[in-house]
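Quick illustration, no need to memorize.
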Amino acid sequence: MKFSTKAKAFAIAALIALSTAQPAHAVDLTGSGASFVDPLLQACKAGFAKATGHSYVYSSTGSGTGKKNSDSKIGDFWFSDSAHTASTKRSTVFHAPIIAAPIAVLVNLPRKKDIYLSASTVAKIFAGEITKWNDQEIVADNNRSVTTTIYRKDSTGNVKKDSKGNPIVLRVGKKTTYYTLPNKPIKVVFRADGSGTSNNFTTWLNGVAPTIWNKKGNDAFTTAFPGDINAPSNIGRIVGANASQGIATLAAKTPYSITYAEKNWGDAYGLRAAYVSNATGQFTFPDSAAVSAFLGEANQDENGIVTYDYSTKVAGAYTLGIVSYMLIETSYADKARGAAVKELAEFILSPACSANDPKLGYVVVQGTFLDKAKSLIAKMNK
């Protein structure tokens, strides 16, 4: 699996094909679902309109709503950051994993200083076992010798791979970190709505720290929570908000808080992304190279559903990288509308959309994953 944040030659060809095959009339599309993808979709509106003549509006109401709306045929397309495997899913709806990005562990601390959190520490914080910033385990994570892997990158800033598809390591760096953590309670902010981000985050917690986070991942954070989230010690200290923007807004207003969301929400609201440990013991940052190294170890089944390897031994892998699924129809009653949705899927998949603004932090799916996504999209609107 290979990812890139820059436009490739196929994107140019795709856009030429789109621009020379303008529809007889414009189609106005409606979509809903995951808030994780919303910044990218908003950024790509103008480019899609220019390339195809079509337009779309997207409501970032959460993955749970995206699944429900696809079940009820509300709108034309839907996004979910977790697979839709419920019995309510219609047989004509399928998954196209066409957007990739990291989930970041975001903190609101007064010092603008790098913070390091081991996977087990993150699990204990969100499970309510660690409740103070100067807890000995957080102190230990941030006052130690840290090893980091520096990848060789190409001219686009992406990791280079060898002939076998393995990331090429430029060098391994070491440094000693010092951080005097504040003697303050940790305020945990979680997604209160049905969220694929919550599903991926809690699945990761269960995968990397199963003895601490002993419940399986779920779209509902409260359902996946390993203890009693309504215990007196958690009331007022662990709080929820809707959508990625909602939790980022609340965390930004709440000193000494911690939350989880796509990294660009943290950038937008002044929250700092943590370096998080992986199975090799290295601490990695949620950037495109580290995410692509992790996603390169993932598997995709014939239905497009992705399985992640949280125990990967790729040294510099950031193991909280995910893909977001576009839920789309095999067959549309309105063929012109179906054709427009297909063009939208192809445009989003292309670097022309994902590279629209590299600061957004999304990466373009390529390699075998790109081939699978394209083969699934080809089944649309038959």
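Residues 56 and 190 are 29 Å apart (CA to CA).
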